[in-house]
Write a structure and sequence with these properties.
382 residues, alpha/beta, 7-stranded parallel β-sheet, 6-stranded parallel β-sheet, 13 strands
């Protein structure tokens, strides 16, 4: 099949760009003709909260990436739609993760469907309802959805959000696959050496962009409770990721809670080649999110077989079965602290949980996701 993926990819950084590249590679391995139609401008600079939108990592090999889409130029949208339609693809997959992209991607999708009726347009939806709400979100999302033939989503939570739009297209759910592109695990001592950490200490990891909905403040409050209980001796909270919000808020909280000597903050974007150092140095990954659909962080933890603590929001409990691969807790510092303490109180130091991860991660293969798209394509064509 001739497949085109509309979404971010190299040189853009972040989990969505990485995901699109790995998905394209999975289709290529299956023998399909695949191209990613990437952005020339993803966000206007004043809307981007980080330091840079671009990665310094080398361009991935074996993937055709063409930069065409300008998210804020309507004339560009029609040009891109016509150009993709001229290629007469069988399947166009449109990555949708926030309402801001609704006008550009919706217009392009609509143009493709009008000019190439044989082409099926299927959204890959990270979110239907965004974590951080803004006026006009439903209008922009609805505009996009009406121009698709189907939607693939990665958690039941997104499917329930899709129901609120009375979506008429076909749909399929396939869980977020395991990220297996960060290399094999390495010894803890080697990972700690790469990060400048003391290998004799235990590390609990918070990983990824720091945004308010991800609940880092809840984790800091939880750590303060553990410290008051005398349960943090010989342990550190390791934070790896760039602030996408109020940095001063978190730094002030660390000072107020008197955690400066127990919290290690690497405030920067973690490049692909460094990711495994953080997970291999850590005993436990904590995602104290206030809202969620699915998360790439859980799937990196699955790859490196690191137990997890996640909050009971969105699709996280679907991916992290409680007491089998980690702990699912309420969105509350006391519950988070209790789970971290319970992990370190285990006589097996989490080995049973790691066995559960090894047994469970087989269900998160990339071929399951590519298969979901191909089955949906067949259903749309009937």
């Amino acid at each position: 099949m001739k497949i085109r993926i509309l979404g971010p990819a190299h040189p853009y950084r972040g989990g969505i760009a990485k995901f699109d590249e790995v998905l394209a590679s999975a289709f290529v391995r299956e023998g399909h003709d695949v191209k990613i139609v990437n952005f020339t401008r993803q966000y206007p600079s004043f809307l981007f909260p980080g330091r840079t939108q671009y990665t310094e990592a080398p361009r991935p090999e074996g993937i055709d990436i063409e930069r065409r889409i300008d998210s804020v130029n309507p004339f560009n949208w029609f040009r891109v739609g016509r150009a993709v339609a001229r290629e007469q693809p069988d399947l166009v997959i449109v990555r949708f993760w926030m309402p801001f992209m609704g006008p550009s991607l919706g217009t392009i999708a609509g143009m493709i469907r009008r000019r190439s009726p044989r082409t099926k347009v299927v959204a890959l939806a990270d979110n239907i309802v965004p974590h951080e709400h803004r006026p006009g979100d439903r209008l922009l999302t609805g505009y996009f959805l009406r121009r698709t033939d189907g939607v693939v989503y990665m958690s039941d939570e997104v499917g329930r959000d899709l129901d609120t739009f009375a979506y008429r297209g076909l749909r399929a759910m396939s869980p977020h696959p395991v990220y297996d592109t960060y290399g094999p695990s390495i010894p803890k001592a080697e990972a700690c050496a790469a990060l400048g950490l003391e290998p004799a200490l235990d590390y609990v990891l918070f990983f990824g962009f720091i945004r308010d909905y991800k609940g880092l403040d809840l984790l800091l409050e939880a750590w303060a409770r553990l410290r008051a209980q005398g349960k943090t001796q010989g342990r550190r909270l390791l934070i790896g990721g760039e602030y996408y919000g109020n940095r001063e808020k978190y730094e002030a909280l660390i000072r107020r809670l008197e955690l400066t000597d127990e919290v290690v903050v690497h405030d920067r974007y973690i490049e692909e080649g460094e990711v495994r150092n953080y997970f291999c140095a850590s005993d436990l990954v904590v995602q104290p999110y206030r809202s969620a659909t699915q998360s790439g962080v859980t799937q990196v933890a699955y790859h490196f077989e690191v137990p997890m603590v996640v909050t009971r929001v969105g699709g996280l409990p679907e991916i992290v079965p409680d007491s089998r691969v980690g702990y699912v807790v309420d969105v509350e510092p006391g519950a988070i602290a209790e789970a971290i303490g319970a992990f370190y109180d285990r006589p097996d130091r989490g080995e049973v949980l790691r066995e559960g991860i090894r047994a469970g991660k087989e269900r998160f293969g990339w071929e399951a996701l590519t298969g979901a798209f191909l089955r949906l394509y067949d259903e749309i064509g009937k």
